[in-house]
Amino acid sequence: MTTLALHRPSLFRRVAAGFAAAAAMLAAACANMDSAPSASSAAEPALGLYELRIYTASPGKMAALDGRFRDHTIGLFKKHGMTPISFFHVAPMPGQTLDNRLFYVMGYKDRAARDASWMAFAADPEWKQVYADSQKDGSLTSKIENIFLSATDYSPKLNTMSSASPRHFELRTYTVMPGRLEDLHSRFRNHTTRIFAKHGMTNFMYWRPVADQPAMTDKMVYMLAFPNQEARNDSWKAFGADEEWKKVAADSQKTGPMLISPGGVVSVQLTPTDYSPLK
Question: 43-272 maps to which CATH number?
Answer without folding.
Answer: 3.30.70.100
